[in-house]
Amino acid sequence: MQSPTLREALAALRRAPLLTGLSAGMVALALFVAGLFGTVTHNLQVALQSVEDRVAVVAYLDDGAGPAPIDRAVADLEARDDVREVRYVSQDRALEIARAELPELAELGAGLAENPFPASLEIVLQDGGADPDAIAVVAQAAAAIPIVEDVQYGQEWVDRLHALRRLTGVAVMVIGAAFAVVGALIIGTAIRIAIFARRDEIYIMRLVGAKDAFIRRPFLLEGAFTGVVGGAAATGLTWLTYQTLHRFLEDLSWIPSTWVVGGIAAGGFFGMLASAVAVRRHLREV
Amino acid sequence: MIRFIRVTKEYASGAAIEDVSLDIGKGEFVFLTGHSGSGKTTTLKLIHLSERPTDGEVRVAGFSSIRTTPRDLWKLRRKVGLVFQDFRLLPGRTAMENVGFALEVTGSPPKAITPKAQRLLSQVGLASKSERPVEQLSGGERQRVAIARALATEPLVLLADEPTGNLDERATRGVMDLIWEINALGMAVVMATHDLELVRRYASARVMELDQGRLVYDSSGVDRAVTHTT
Ligand SMILES: Nc1ncnc2c1ncn2[C@@H]1O[C@H](COP(=O)(O)OP(=O)(O)OP(=O)(O)O)[C@@H](O)[C@H]1O
Ligand SMILES: [Mg+2]
Prior knowledge:
The complex is a heterodimer. Chain A is an alpha+beta fold. Chain A has helices at residues 4-15, 17-53, 67-78, 91-101, 103-110, 132-143, 155-197, 199-208, 212-246, 257-285, and strands spanning 56-61, 83-89, 120-125, 148-152. In chain A, 73% of the residues lie in helices and 8% in strands. The longest helix of chain A has 43 residues, at 155-197. Chain B folds into two domains: 1-79 and 155-230, P-loop containing nucleotide triphosphate hydrolases (Rossmann fold), CATH 3.40.50.300; 90-153, no CATH class. Helix content of chain B is 34%, strand content 27%. In chain B, α3 (95-105) runs parallel beside α5 (139-150). The A-B interface holds A 1, 4, 200-201, 203-212, 214-215, 284 and B 48, 70-71, 73-78, 82, 88, 90-91, 101-102, 104-107, 110, 149-150, 152-153. Bound molecules: adenosine-5'-triphosphate and magnesium ion. Magnesium ion (MG) binds next to α1 of chain B. Residues 11-13, 16, 34, 36-42, 194 of chain B line the site of adenosine-5'-triphosphate (ATP).
């Protein structure tokens, strides 16, 4: 024999499969929109991350700097925790790069008597060190080295990039929360209807002395079930959409599995919470 | 076992019960009479705490209207069986299922439910019709199912609000005899009725009369002051 709670919840499902299915479907749609938004945000963050990974501090060196001070500067900088790698770019190499990137220079450069490009150190930061303050610290350290003439790191767009990442993070949270509320409202309404359909039974239960927790349980189960099913269906829809788009946009990446699991779990949790609110309100009225 | 201490119940429309004090002991049979609107139903509601007094205190089976929280109400409800004029059975279910439902939701072990429901239905004389949907039962039979359900939690008192109000003469007698029998087994009964014929027929019962929310007559008080009667 099944537990009475489970049986009541299943009976409710059997009695009103349309209601449960419909609300799960609506929850799925709401969470699907959240899933699409999550996909976009995730990919935006991936893109921004790869740009940030390329953020480097460039320290231009005195033309007269000898090999020994340069080696020492490289060693000093690489010893830092926030620096991953330091690459030395000689004057010749700088000219080569410039020629490769700008063909016009190739012709022009042939006539140059003197190499106009300074030697430099490209300082690559550790992962996650690309926030403006961390960069500024490294830049200052580099500037303090005697053979370093000038330090550049595109301060302005590092700031902007950082702000953009923060903004998308906040946006995904706000929109995610908004759709979670929409889902919870849908489930709450469905549970209210389910409670209404069973109001006679609830009345009798209270009269003969069933515990409130006992009355509440099947509805909580139903709410959680609706939320989880909605969340899973939303994941499926998002996945299908992702697969379709992936054919055209190969770089598109799938949202992290923690987001998926978190989304479905949140669906179940909010479903249960919405049911709890609906049942509590009803029990207070009877 | 039931005690009202200067109980007043006010609704927005006015006082339904006003300054009522009473005492009902274990195993008593009490008729609660009075005109329509005199406060009989309200008194029964106060006893099972579906209404709380606006003033005074109701004490039932060790539970106080002042201290019992909504969370603990189920404990009181299991000590108080309820029967109504309109039966309030769950439609679409058999007699058996209606009684079994009460057992199940009050935590009877699943295996014990069927035999116990069967026994309760035999007690009210419905063993042979236990598998019938309640819609296919007569009024008297439905009231018997409701009584069986009320007995499911083995309460200390049965509260009946006009239990014969929808029944014909024969069915009324049957249901009354059943309730009388249950009382003889030791369960207190408080029955609201305005059927004075009924009250006269069961003359050994205690009678309380309400008028406009006040307790204006109590036969046990009269007994004690028998010299005052003419
Ligand atoms: N929920 C309520 N809200 C407001 N007033 C109420 C409510 N319930 C009862 N009353 C009023 O309280 C008074 C007593 O009502 P009650 O139902 O106790 O009477 P009664 O003796 O059971 O009457 P009847 O014999 O018709 O069943 C009436 O005046 C009624 O209008
Ligand atoms: Mg009444």
